[in-house]
Design brief:
The protein is α/β, with parallel strands linked by helices and 175 residues long. The protein is built from four helices and eight strands, in the order βαβββααβαβββ. The chain has a four-stranded mixed sheet with strand order 1-2-3-4, covered by helices on one side. A hairpin with a 3-residue loop joins β7 and β8. α1 runs parallel beside α2.
Amino acid sequence: MQYIISGKSIDVTEGLKAAVQDKLGKLERYFTPETEVHVTLSVEKERQKIEITIPMKGNIVRAEQVSDDMYVSIDLVEEIIERQLRKYKNKIVDQQQSAVSLSKAFVEEDIEDDEEIKIIRSKRFAMKPMEAEEACLQMELLGHSFYVFRNASTDEVNVVYKRKGNTYGLIEPEF
């Protein structure tokens, strides 16, 4: 795996780089050597946060972990990614999605599929064009954590969502 390690409000020392590569090195059996692993370390007040993003063709594996010690965060995030990979491996392969970034040994390994995804409800609704701020208001009125709408500026389907700390996020499609 190829590591791209960066820091926000933190000096990424050789010790931190070594800890990240050592801990995430356990995941190498799941991926091909060309797979890129984007690691972002950040510090906010007493919060030590690590974010891992592994772009794969057609999918993104992402995890983040926050604790009061960066080395603890590094340990915990590796477990999250491994759990995600095991959980979704069969689904990725079954749906004929490209598993190019996954190692052949991992793809061929049999894993119990203990959790089946079940869609229990489906909704259809009209989407009138609106600005992102209006969509946030609609989301709040409905008491939801996200809201799908047609952006009046771009005429594309967007999603606004509630983030931690009473802030909002906007998801825009990229083709």
